[in-house]
Amino acid sequence: MDIDLISKALANPTRRQILQWLKAPQKYLSEEQCGGFARGVCAGNIEKLGNVSQSTMSNHLSVLQQAGLIQAEKYGQWSYFSRNEALIQQYIEYLTHSL
Question: What is the pTM of this model?
Answer without folding.
Answer: 0.90
